[in-house]
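Lab channel / #folding
Pinned by the channel admin:
"Please post every new chain as: sequence first, then the structure tokens as a reply. Keep commentary short and put observations after the output so the thread stays searchable."

First post following the new format, from NK:
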Amino acid sequence: MRRFAIVVVAAALAAMVLPVGVAGANHIPHTRCDPSGDTCVSVKKIDGVRRLRLGMLFKYFPKHQVCVKGPDDERTCVGFRTRRLNNGLWGSSVDWRAHYPFGGRGIYRVVWRTQGRFFTSLRFHVRGGGG
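Reply from TO:
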């Protein structure tokens, strides 16, 4: 039964972060998972809100930091508690605009850190006036 539960939660994790549609030649990946698939991060617009998400099969660490560096080279880091998400996973789902400044149009780099160390990163592109 435990193995079945792990498979179901792993499938939910994959569904949470896997991109929809086919990527073009200039596409920036919006999802990254570790080789085991236990931990994934994503940057996606959900209902018009750009969310920086961390999803873990288990609560591997109690806190983590999400840093965003904009095209203006300003870097802002905010700490978050790892919590139980609606889909049964552990992690966070952060509203980018609520926690980070708009640094203009261009490429933003998101870095997830835990215990003061680099965990993983992704990038996203802002084309308009702040979305």
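NK: The longest helix spans residues 2-17.
TO: also worth noting, The chain has two helices and nine strands.
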